[in-house]
Design goal:
Blueprint lengths: L1 H9 L4 E7 L2 E7 L6 E3 L9 E10 L16 H6 L8 H6 L8 E9 L4 E4 L7 E2 L6 E4 L10 E6 L6 E10 L9 E8 L4 E6 L9 E10 L2 E11 L3 H8 L13
Parallel strand pairs: 2-12
Antiparallel strand pairs: 1-2, 3-14, 4-9, 4-11, 5-6, 5-10, 7-8, 8-9, 10-13, 11-12, 13-14
InterPro entries: TerD (IPR003325)
């Protein structure tokens, strides 16, 4: 697994993986430092619904010594609790005193008419899919399970959208990015999955800008950012010059 991840990081072009699910051809690309951008225009992602998904799980060292990565667990744990061998890794991890960590998916948006705002679970800012801002946040997954959290973007109004900054923050403010594997996936209607892993996290970070979706040279692109901040959403705002007003609780107004 380590050698594969190292290969992906070294690649100069987005790494593609192909699969067939239910007869449908799907493929994935990982955005890296050396290959940070992919065109949605060239991959049929400028119409229909674009889905952004957040999934995460705690790393082995933070699961009280249980070895769950890669599907294996210690012999001692297996003897003490044989049924644990058949539990998904996410379930096991979150039953071992790590459920207090809650990563949330959010975004800053700017429309072509100049209107700007934020969507996030905190403050109940969920947006609208068929009306401005043509973005809707669905659900707040507190346990990092396979379904994760989703953000839906109405790409039939792609020309009305100037830019969207996807970011992740920790609800309780406790730094935990260095203790978890966090992945943002952007899924197009035609089967392309664009993945951005939150690599090389700062142990003190409380929020991270993940990716920007914007028009560039006549195309709509997704560009990797992965920039950590010590503060909260307002610091993400300042980093990219969005210019929103923020309350003390981290809610935009």
């Amino acid at each position: 697994m380590g050698s594969l991840l190292e290969y992906l990081r070294r690649s100069r072009t987005p790494v593609q993986r192909f699969d067939t699910v239910g007869g449908a051809h799907t493929y994935a690309m990982e955005l890296t430092r050396r290959a940070p951008q992919v065109s949605l225009t060239k991959h049929g992602g400028t119409s229909g619904t674009l889905r952004v998904n957040l999934t995460w799980r705690m790393r082995t060292s933070d699961m009280m010594g249980s070895n769950v990565r890669g599907g294996s667990r210690s012999l001692r744990d297996a003897v003490r609790n044989p049924l644990a061998l058949f539990k998904p890794a996410e379930v096991v991890g979150h039953t071992q005193a790590v459920s207090s960590v809650d990563f949330d998916l959010a975004c800053l948006y700017e429309l072509k008419d100049g209107s700007r705002g934020a969507l996030q679970p905190l403050g109940g800012l969920h947006g609208e899919f068929n009306e401005p801002p043509y973005i809707e946040l669905s659900g707040d997954d507190r346990f990092g399970t396979a379904s994760g959290e989703d953000l839906y973007i109405n790409m039939d109004h792609a020309e009305d959208i100037a830019r969207i900054l996807l970011y992740v923050y920790i609800k309780d403010g406790s730094p935990a990015f260095a203790r978890a594997d966090v992945i943002i996936s952007v899924l197009t209607p035609n089967g392309l999955t664009i993945e951005v892993g939150l690599t090389d996290p700062n142990p003190q970070a409380r929020a991270c800008s993940v990716a920007m979706i914007e028009h560039h040279r006549g195309e709509l692109v997704v560009r990797r950012e992965v920039r950590y901040v010590y503060g909260f959403q307002s610091e993400i705002d300042r980093l990219f010059g969005w210019g929103l007003s923020w309350g003390r609780a981290g809610t935009a107004r």
